[in-house]
Specification:
The protein is an alpha/beta fold. It is about 35% helix and about 20% strand. It has four domains: about 140 residues, Alpha-D-Glucose-1,6-Bisphosphate, Chain A, domain 3 (3-Layer(aba) Sandwich); about 100 residues, 3-Layer(aba) Sandwich (Alpha-D-Glucose-1,6-Bisphosphate, Chain A, domain 3), CATH 3.40.120; about 90 residues, Alpha-D-Glucose-1,6-Bisphosphate, subunit A, domain 3 (Alpha-D-Glucose-1,6-Bisphosphate, Chain A, domain 3, 3-Layer(aba) Sandwich); about 90 residues, TATA-Binding Protein, CATH 3.30.310. The protein has a six-stranded mixed sheet, with helices on both faces. The protein has a five-stranded antiparallel sheet with strand order 15-19-18-17-16. α1 runs parallel beside α2, α1 packs across α4 and α6 packs parallel to α11. A hairpin with a 5-residue loop joins β17 and β18. It is built from 14 helices and 19 strands.
Length: about 450
């Protein structure tokens, strides 16, 4: 079955997966989808092909009779923000998020600023693959308006939400924006909140010269060394479009993303007096412990689709999250890394603490999160066979989740997950245990299974 959309929109190498032609068709399909009238915002990240692709999307929208508000170079959270803030019918963001520089992609948002659901994406694919486009007549094509001022409006609104009631101590923060779309925004917001801010890789550059734009532990080792040297209370790092946030301690250690999720859950549950916390399938049992402690319930969902569960649970849900990503429905229905940085900074300022002290009551368990390059043509078959063998090797598992890959939960609260990436030609292994010895045992068994199965398809795992 032909497919354009993956875990997080359309994403892949420019000229192969994504092109001006595809971008135009997505814009035209979006216009057809919303009935050939209305207003949709279009924005893009810093990638070299992004201005071209966003212009193509806008052209498709206008050809279908929809007016376009072009907000230019913005982080994904701000593009999503435009829809409810300006009362629009939707938004389209051109970004490949944390992917390498040659890649690009497209994400579509509804009038609430929420990323399209799988069903909505399938409807767009149906329009595109069957060419069921609706074109506007010559005198009814869409208009084009530029509105970069929305960036300032987003900043003002976020500052008003998180301005500290009092500052117990002026904390020191270093921010690494990966030369991405938030380079001129996150440092400004944290400074306006009251922090002393140092910045690194905070000029726009679509080649991402400072580091690759995925804020994972190995990539941020350099930032960790700098953080330790310049004596900060926390280090923050974004991906290319700032829907993600990673944090490092004052001595440069990477903070497991699940601990941040657990902290956000604690904050929201204390605020709401209970509720449902939606997290992705690859998250730690540490979250469950915190959520249960504060009177909440954990529900797990597919990676990249926690927003769909958020809609399903309605007012019962206090938040949804996956590693690096948070949606707070009281702020908006989009993933927002800038929001995370502002929330953490505001709390640290009010309490006068380092990030370690802020998270002191959040548990931490050893984890492994590893990706292996596997061709798209074979990755799903390989993963399917791996799943069968996992059930045999870990035969004493207590429960399983198969909503996105296969996760086996063990009686001792360890777990392992294997899934095919929805955005890249990769297979991913995730695991957690209460001690390093057990973690290594689970990981090595799983890796052995993957190597054996991949070998049958002449794919080398290294």
């Amino acid at each position: 079955m032909r497919k354009l959309f993956g875990t997080a929109g359309i994403r892949g190498e420019y000229g192969k997966v994504i092109s001006p032609e595809i971008a135009y068709k997505v814009g035209l399909a979006m216009a057809t989808f919303i009935g050939g009238k209305g207003v949709v915002s279009v924005g893009h990240d810093v990638r070299l092909t992004s201005p071209l692709l966003s212009s193509s999307v806008a052209s498709g929208l206008m050809a279908g009779g929809v007016d376009v508000v072009n907000v230019g170079l913005v982080p994904t959270p701000i593009l999503a923000f435009t829809a409810p803030h300006l009362g629009l019918d939707g938004g389209v963001m051109v970004t490949a998020s944390h992917n390498p520089p040659p890649d690009n992609g497209i994400k579509c948002f509804n009038s609430k600023g929420m990323e399209f659901t799988e069903k909505m994406e399938e409807e767009l694919e149906e329009i595109i693959f069957n060419e069921k486009f609706t074109y506007a007549k010559w005198d009814d094509v869409g208009n084009l308006e530029y509105y970069p001022e929305v960036v300032d409006e987003y900043v003002d609104k976020l500052l008003s939400k998180f301005k500290p009631k009092r500052i117990r101590r002026k904390i020191r923060v270093i921010v690494d924006c990966a030369n991405g779309a938030a380079s001129n925004i996150t440092p400004l917001i944290l400074r306006e909140l009251g922090a002393s801010v140092l910045s690194i890789n905070c000029h726009f550059d679509g080649l991402f010269p400072g580091r690759i734009p995925e804020p994972r532990p190995d990539v941020l080792e350099g930032l960790g060394r700098i953080a330790k040297t310049v004596n900060v209370d926390v280090a923050f790092a974004h991906d290319g479009d700032a829907d993600r946030l990673s944090a490092l301690t004052s001595d440069g250690r990477f903070i497991l993303n699940d601990r941040l999720i657990a902290y956000y859950a604690k904050v929201k549950l204390l605020e709401k007096g209970g509720g449902v916390v939606i997290v992705s399938i690859d998250t730690s049992f540490a979250i469950d412990e915190v959520v249960e402690k504060y009177g909440g319930e954990v529900v797990r969902a597919k990676l990249g689709k926690t927003h769909e569960k958020l809609v399903e649970y309605g007012l019962k849900a206090v938040m949804s999250a996956e590693p690096w990503k948070l949606i707070d429905p009281d702020w908006g229905y989009w993933v927002d890394g800038i929001y995370q940085a502002a929330l953490l900074t505001s709390h640290m300022l009010e309490e006068g603490v380092t990030i370690e002290e802020l998270l002191k009551d959040i548990p931490e368990y050893p984890q492994v999160r590893v990706s292996f390059k596997v061709p798209n043509e074979t990755k799903h078959r390989i993963v399917s066979e791996v799943h069968e063998k996992m059930r045999e090797v870990f035969k004493n598992y207590e429960s399983e989740l198969s909503i996105d890959g296969l996760r086996l939960n063990m009686p001792d609260k360890s777990w392992v997950l294997v899934r095919a990436s929805g955005t890249e030609p990769k297979v991913r292994i995730y695991a957690e245990a209460r001690n390093t010895k057990k973690l290594n045992e689970i990981y090595e068994k799983t890796l052995k299974i993957l190597k054996e199965v991949a070998g049958k398809y002449e794919v080398k795992i290294s």
